[in-house]
């Protein structure tokens, strides 16, 4: 039957497109993340929008370890955040070397506990990158298979991918709204980071947390990530439709 994918039964066809959808979603999330890193997650924009400068002025002098963060300029704050972003995307290299001059001395930005946490973040990014590369490979294979066989796929399968993509985004968005971004943020940290490694820091103990106005900044980044996924996903859908020769007349 023409509705069967590559002469497999309907179940095999659905399984094929489910795998395509999952790999696509992983690749989209990874590409969106990488795109955001090019602008340091738009930190300079969120810096003004979230009033991070005022936050630093309030909590910087209260820090129990290092003082003087509030004395730095906006561009210096942005540069420090950029150094953190660069380090966690370079396997954690350089985290201990992030310093700033407070007007009297050169001092570290991060405490040992913060360095350990950011190293955990860097390790997680490395794992996510490996998964993304693997997903990209399988996605290319699945996209190229019908071209190799010179097949044209029924349009309803293509619609299934689009529905999966949209339903997944809607479900994740609804989950965030119902549970709350902060609760999801804390749950995620307990899930992915090693036991015994500190990941929660009070503003008075962490210039890193103060610089990021956590978790507010992470909520803003999550919004930007979803937006990027939607935009890049739309382009990918058009690419898939063209490469895989989707037959809209079926």
From TrEMBL:
Keywords: Membrane, Transmembrane, Transmembrane helix. Pfam families: Lit. InterPro entries: Lit. The chain crosses the membrane at residues 12-33, 121-143, 164-188, 217-240. It comes from the Bacteria. This is DUF1461 domain-containing protein. It comes from Pseudoalteromonas tunicata D2.
